[in-house]
Amino acid sequence: MTSPTPITFYDIASSPPLRAFAANPWKTRFALNYKGLPYRTHWVDMPSIATLRQTLGVPANRTLPDGTPFHTLPLIHDAATNALLGDSFEIALYLETAYPSHPPLFRPSTTGLTAAFNAHVDALFTRFATLCTHAPFDPRVADAVGAMFAARVGAMAAELQQRAGAQPGGVKVLVAFEQALGELAKAYRHTGGTTDYVWRAGGTGEAQRQRAPTGLGEGGPFLDGDEPVYADFVVGAWLKMMEASMSAEDWGCVRTWQGGLWGRVVDALDRWSEIK
Ligand SMILES: N[C@@H](CCC(=O)N[C@@H](CS)C(=O)NCC(=O)O)C(=O)O
After folding, report:
1. pLDDT for position 237
2. Over the range 104-143, which residues count as b (16 or more CB within 10 Å of their CB) and which as e?
3. Nearest residue to 72 (alpha-carbon basis) of 46, 36, 100
4. Which has the closest alpha carbon to 244: 118, 137, 124, 128?
5. Rounded distance from Cα 113 to ligand 1 centre (Å)
6. What crossing angle do the helices spanning 142-155 and 157-166 adopt, rounded to 10°?
7. Using one digit for the tens of pLDDT, what is the confidence trace for 235-252?
8. What distance in Å separates the CA atoms of residue 172 and residue 7, rounded to the nearest whole number?
9. Is residue 209 domain-resident?
10. 216 pLDDT above the threshold of 70
11. CA 139 to CA 149: how far, in whole Å?
């Protein structure tokens, strides 16, 4: 089936000029572009997400640790089928089923594995949200966004305390991020423990001077083969968010870590990064 009318894709508006920055909507954008489906982006201010979802009758799909629901993007409406979906993974599954003749997002029998990988990668990057010091939030809604986040702090107190305990501030957070991405790099290299050399010496700088064990490839830019799958878009989406939201200097470091793997990954996904 080919959609006669564009799919409406709801993404979070940035400061002007409008650009995509939020991780989960990036997963959907990659999926829509890779499948080559017609769509148009409808930009939504962060404080208006709840109203949008309530108006469309799509329930919140996240909850704060105290059980309070909260509303998120992405969300799509497919006029061809009248489908309305408000979770990036559910959207990927829907697109795969509704448009089977378009390039596949999943290799056969890998949906469960991809769901687990998605959760793992979400948790990894979320731990380093404090590095997003330059997130392009729209200043016109900054006060409302600040109030939303302040209201969440109480509900998330225990979790935030745990994160703070796990990550001392400043450069150490960057080194911890490098270590975490070193673990993820093993998936690209199809290896187990042998890439620990990357950070054994204590992270950025010293780590970059160390050489990979002989015979260990650099890996990437895709997890398995010459074509990306949804799992590649999951990692790419978070990298896109970090690119848009970290300081240019910190992002420049990330691009070079693990032999430049993350720079190669994000560059290889450029083909499917178009904003329509
Ligand atoms: N499980 C959801 C998570 C979506 C999500 O957390 N979206 C974030 C942007 S990356 C959001 O909309 N946040 C709004 C907020 O924090 O108020 C999905 O995969 O779609």
Report:
1. 98
2. ebeeeeebeebeebbeebbebbebbeebbeebbbbeebee
3. 46
4. 137
5. 21
6. 90
7. 999 999 999 999 999 999
8. 43
9. yes
10. no
11. 15
What residues line ligand 1, using a CB cutoff of 6 Å? 12, 22-24, 46, 49, 61-62, 70, 72-74, 87-89, 148
pLDDT at 7: 97
Q: Identify the three-state secondary structure at position 210.
A: coil
Q: List, for residues 144-156, the tens digit of each pLDDT value.
A: 888 888 888 777 6
CA-nearest residue, atom 13 of ligand 1: 72
The helix or strand, by DSSP H or E, that contains position 75, with its residue range, turns out to be strand 75-78
Range 92-121 average pLDDT: 97
Candidate of 11, 14, 24 to mutate for ligand 1, largest count of ligand atoms within 8 Å of Cβ: 24
Judge whether 24 lies within some domain: yes
Q: What is the pLDDT, as a whole number, of residue 191? A: 76
Pocket test for ligand 1, best of 14, 49, 62 (most atoms within 8 A of CB): 62
pLDDT in tens, 253-270: 999 988 899 999 999 999
Q: Is residue 1 part of a domain?
A: no
Structural domains of the chain, count = 1
What residues make up the domain containing 88?
Answer: 7-104+112-272
Instruction: Please state, in angstroms and rounded to a whole number, the distance separating the CA atoms of residues 180 and 31.
Output: 25
